[in-house]
């Protein structure tokens, strides 16, 4: 019994060892390493890197590689975790299965083993135990299988399998790229034999097998994001989402969503894969692909594949509905389809050029025989509107269009046609049209046309074709001229090679009014055809065209050596008012085969196109392919030419010739070719070559210095030598003169694969220009010692530099580089101007008798060429501007404009005889659409003169701000002193009527343009000081007050008041009236002030202590004038006090009447001041005037004026006596005069004038 115990202990120990060994292998890392070692020993192609964990509790394996002759698999990381809770239950539970970094390559299939015997299809799969996978991730996968490449970044899913049912949990698949292997060339199949066609025509109905899923399934959600199919035209899908289930033969798609750049699709479907395959489908697509983006397409289908009903709709700018019934499983494919559309157009995404409306198409039958009908309305540009209706029938071998009807242009086109391709393609057709009126679409072609033509044709067994038109007839009227087209035509090419071409017509005649053309004859082995043109009055056939053309073209000879004879003439030709030609004559003989030979002459006379005229033209061409000559002699204005070209043509190599002579006349003289020049064109390379040569005029020349080659690639070197600017004299105005000469060299190269190369340099030695401003003034002159400009374009960049050395002045120099010429152009440039004086501009600044200054600048420009940054300084110094008629004299000025990237600062100091004017400003163009500037102007008591009317001292303190849409002016202006003298109103004071309307040539009003492109806003305060004097039309007054000038959107508005100082007087009614009260009130537009003025006669010159005067009140355009007195009295008495200082009934009425007479004369003379002044100017007397002076019996009428500067002459005639008085006054200096008077008494006086307040 001992051995039994020992055996039992041994068995127990062995079992214990096995259990422990299994536990160690399954639950310890050592077991995982042992399994890894065993796998590598069993599979030499397998290698495993590091391992962690255990087989049952979860493990991770890194750097797994399997490589043999047919495949290569590398896995960066593999992890597996089992659910230990399921180990004691009959199921498999995987908590986590993850694979990262897979690269798999299988360039070819492994060697094939013995073929497997086909087995019966599996109808059901059922697992004995459930499988549950909580998480599966496949990340960074890259597969290459037989050159089909697929990769993705992330795949995550979960699933359960219970018996024969699979549930796929929510699944995400992201960033997939698929590249299919290049398609291999397939062997072209031979032509289908008649037996094959017969077999196809005898096809039987399709019987579909019943499909039973071996396992039922539920897909809770399957999502694909960012899928791309790579290739020449990549296809992308941003989202695909599927929810589906299936059991037995039934499949249910609850949701299918696809989002792609072309469209977004949503669909659901149900299908049973048994019997007739019953199904339902509901799909909705929103199209995003241009040009049909914005459209919506829906599709509904139900029934079965034995009888399927479909309903498809397109909605949007285009609309269409397709409804029908199909039987795909039947051999003859029965169908019944209806298509309707209310509107179709082309182009789709732009204004329509063609539209198709109210379309209905019905087709019914099967492949053995079907019928169809359609109708539609078609319109477009430039075609006329068309209504179409047709009916027909057909089968797989033929189609018969039994009825065609088109309503258009007020008439009807009808016809029928048949085509058959059972053996060879043949067709027959007949088309008739009646009462077609082209004038409804093209007004210049009014008329009515009817006609008919019959045609037939087909293809031949030899690969050729034939066409017959046994009847062609058109008749009617166009442009009130009879139109006929009658004839027959047959044409064929039996073998399609051209050597058996035949054309035959017993006569084809087109006649329109007096104009016509006839073609008659045949072309076969022997050519005998003639085309005659007889058009004595082309204006009858085409409006705007006039003249006559007649002649003929004859074709004769054999097909191998045909002969073409041309004889055409034209007279008095012209097109509208644009072009005309008095006559042309074209004659010639051409033999095109086997080697071309020609003798052609063209003469024309007295042609004109716009401002270009042709006096005479002769063109001669004669010779053969191997040797020919072209002579061109043309006389005209502005260009004429005499050219002689010899050449030869080789069908293998191309054309080669010589420009033997050349003489071109232009407005800048005659240019003559210096020597015969080679010209070539190579057929193989498609390259033209022109030899080096020059066109010369005297010493000047325009030359190709090297042979020019031109084609897809090429090069050219051009030079301009000693081009004298005197040649440009015909193009310059007579007052502008330019002297000097120009030289230039240009080198250009180009090719398809590289950026073009260009190098140019321009040089101008000493020269200049002068502009005569007017006959009595000096001319503007600007000269230069040297000008050089160099530019080079290479590698998509342009480099340039320049130097302009101004004669007796500064230099303008700079350099620039522009990169990325074919893209976003960038510039890096420097511009420099040194010691450039402005004195040469003095002749064009007429109001200044002295003008000078100096400009210096050094600027750097960098950045985008349309929005560069600018850095540097622009400085104007020593600026001096003085003159007799200018408002402000400038003794010196220093203005600096500093640029700093996208902003600038201005500092200006302007010195005048009365003080300094300060300018301070800034600018910013960082955003070109919102640039902004600001300028401050400040000064104190600067004298501003506008001779001869205004002299002011102003103290400005203004700020001006501007942007692309608005400008704002704010600040204040002080006027402490001023002298304003108005002798007559300037022309600008008379405004153009607001009712004025200017019309264009077509009598449409011209739209007024805004003076400035932005809105102006102002808010300026003006203070008028107490030393501002006004003298105007008899008014001598002091002004003071405050005004506010405001503008916001509309015109300027003025608010405030101007007071007329006491002691001012106004000469009216022949008297000098004192202004007792004077106010001008502003409360709106400048031209509508309110007046409140009282002017009285000097109380010292009025009897009875009476105050009498004139009161003016109301708006300036309609003032109210009243005569008043204190004490109150009748108007005539008050007027008498104003005019005479006495009552109308007082004693001494004679004196009163004399005063009244004097007053009335004064009033009359006051109205004639303008006329008298104009007469004085005409005879050379300045400020000539008529007035009254004195009082009582000493009253006089005087005339005075200046006959020389400072010398005034005055002559007076007594009104009530015959005493004359002559006065001569001379101004010695300011306010000091010497005066001599001769009359009843003689006197010489020394006068000094002063004033005080």
TrEMBL record:
InterPro entries tied to this protein: TamB_C
Any coiled-coil regions, as ranges: none
Pfam families for the chain: TamB (PF04357)
Keyword entries, A-Z: Membrane, Transmembrane, Transmembrane helix
Intracellular or extracellular location(s): Membrane
Organism superkingdom: Bacteria
Protein topology in the membrane: Single-pass membrane protein
Membrane-crossing residue ranges in chain numbering: none
Domain Translocation and assembly module TamB C-terminal stretches: 914-1252
GO biological process, one term: protein secretion
GO cellular component, one term: plasma membrane
Protein name, per record: Translocation/assembly module TamB
Protein species of origin: Photobacterium kishitanii
